[in-house]
Design a protein that fits this description.
By secondary structure, this protein is α+β, with helices and mostly antiparallel strands. The protein has 12 helices and 10 strands.
Length: 342
């Protein structure tokens, strides 16, 4: 069943990187080279791996995905990611499906759905072993690409089955908790969503706790349990990722990017940016992501931050130049700031 799914993904993912499909929320990915470690954005989604190997790092926790694995993300969260095994002959092949939370809640509302066997534990990311039922449902979803006229009528039914298959796995317990109104995980997810929408604002824990409808200490504990970081660390990561994307893709300078994402001090932004992008936790040596394997930031199907026009030499040179200009801009602003402060 896994080989059959790999064959179907390979047939419809002819291009490197993201291969969009007419099915809402579904994309197929092909990568042929290992990558350095870089930051990526996750969203509520399912990624089914059928070839290759990948590592995801969230806080101090490492997750490894291979041909027998699926990755379930129940929340929006930034993490570090690295493709470990991929080649021209055996490329990394991934099926990505964005989860529709109303559909998840609809499935959970059924009285005949078996209850959870254990309480939800762990972060908002989880890696599990793909079951025959899950592989079968994913295979049938991709088969719809052969008959596009069936997609509007059958796609949502198969996606409901995929949600059901996920919820029946141990890894689905966190998704179940986050989708259940009133659960602490659900209320923490509300705080995460609010923080993502308001990352440029000054963070007041009392305000965030009011959004989650829980005490400040309880929110701290639940937030770290889901994201492996504190609310302040989460906000900082969002700010830096957004600033990086704006500098690399939109060409704005470091000073403008710093103030745009909420920093009041450019020198503070410079130090934070250097720490996060100069020395990634995975230990891969690099200078501000000068390799195109890590620019720009797009939350795509296999959660890798790759250019949409991967493989274009002119684009690679331009992206590399943008990174170098952004780096020089940060250094120049920091130097000016130091002179002024003296």
């Amino acid at each position: 069943m896994r080989k059959e799914l790999a064959r179907k993904i390979a047939a419809h993912a002819q291009l490197l990187g993201e291969n969009p499909t007419p099915i809402p929320g579904l994309a197929l990915f092909r990568r042929k080279d290992p990558t350095a470690c870089f930051l990526a954005a996750y969203e509520p989604s399912l990624s089914v791996f059928v070839q290759g190997r990948k590592r995801i790092t969230l806080g101090d926790i490492e997750y490894f995905c291979d041909a027998s694995s699926f990755l379930l993300s129940s929340i929006d969260v930034p993490a570090e990611t690295q493709i470990l095994e991929a080649s021209e002959k055996v490329p990394l092949l991934v099926m990505f499906l964005r989860l529709d939370m109303p559909t998840v809640r609809e499935v959970l509302s059924r009285d005949d759905l078996p209850g959870p066997e254990t309480s939800a534990q762990g972060t908002g990311l989880a890696v599990g072993v793909t079951t025959v039922g899950l592989l079968s449902a994913c295979s049938r979803l991709i088969e719809l690409l052969e008959t596009p006229e069936d997609i509007p009528f059958v796609s949502h039914l198969i996606q409901r089955e995929i949600v059901y298959r996920i919820l029946r796995t141990p890894q689905g317990e966190r998704l179940r908790a986050i989708a259940t109104t009133g659960d602490l995980s659900y209320r923490t997810a509300r705080a995460i969503a609010w923080l993502r929408a308001n990352y440029a604002k000054q963070l007041h824990m009392e305000e965030l706790a009011a959004v989650a409808r829980m005490g400040v200490s309880t929110l701290h504990h639940q937030f770290r349990a889901l994201t492996a970081m504190s609310p302040l660390q989460y906000q900082k990561r969002l700010r830096l990722q957004t600033a990086r994307q704006r500098m690399l893709m939109d060409g704005i300078d470091a000073s403008t990017a710093a103030y745009e994402v909420g920093y009041e001090s450019v020198s503070q932004f410079t130090r934070a940016y250097s720490r996060d992008f100069g020395q990634p936790q995975c230990g891969i040596s690099r200078r501000f992501e000068t390799s195109t394997s890590s620019v720009p930031m797009w939350p795509d199907a296999d959660h890798t931050a790759i250019p949409r026009n991967w493989g274009n030499d002119e684009t690679r040179s331009r992206d590399r130049l943008r990174v170098q200009c952004a780096f020089l801009s940060i250094r120049m602003v920091a130097g000016c700031r130091e002179i002024i402060e003296r």
